[in-house]
Amino acid sequence: MVTNLVKNALEATPEGGTVSLVAEQSGEGNIRISVHNAGVMPRSVQLQIFERSFSTKPGSGRGVGTYSVKLFTEQFLKGRVSFTSDPIRGTIFTVTLPQSITA
């Protein structure tokens, strides 16, 4: 899931731009992983970003990255995935996972 988010951020970042990855323990006993880039997604993209087969990139076989991140994080790891995208902060995807996962 982190690989998908970093790959998407790199693809959305112009040459010479920066992508940041931060992993930290949150105060609620969770682990939070954030991926940031300076780009801003249009509102129309934001509304579809977690839909299966949605992609802003041409070519077949696209559109499973953010969908699979959300599915894997929430269904199998019992975590949460969210994002913000605005002109001031850029785009930040955040995955929050419980420190211990029970089946």
Textual characterization of the structure:
By secondary structure, the protein is an alpha+beta fold. The protein has a single domain (2-98), classed as 2-Layer Sandwich (Heat Shock Protein 90), CATH 3.30.565. The protein has 3 helices and 4 strands; from the N terminus they run αββααββ. It has helices at 2-11, 43-46, 65-76; strands spanning 19-25, 30-37, 80-86, 90-98. A hairpin with a 4-residue loop joins strand 1 (19-25) and strand 2.
Question: What's this, in brief?
Answer:
The protein is α+β, with helices and mostly antiparallel strands and 103 residues long.
Q: Total number of β-strand segments? A: 4
Q: Architecture, according to CATH?
A: 2-Layer Sandwich
**CATH fold annotation:** Heat Shock Protein 90
- What is the 3D form? globular
Average predicted local confidence, pLDDT: 87
Which short descriptors sum up this protein?
30% strand, four-stranded antiparallel sheet, Heat Shock Protein 90, globular, 103 residues, alpha+beta
Topology:
Elements: H1 2-11, E1 19-25, E2 30-37, H2 43-46, H3 65-76, E3 80-86, E4 90-98
Antiparallel strand pairs: 1-2, 2-4, 3-4
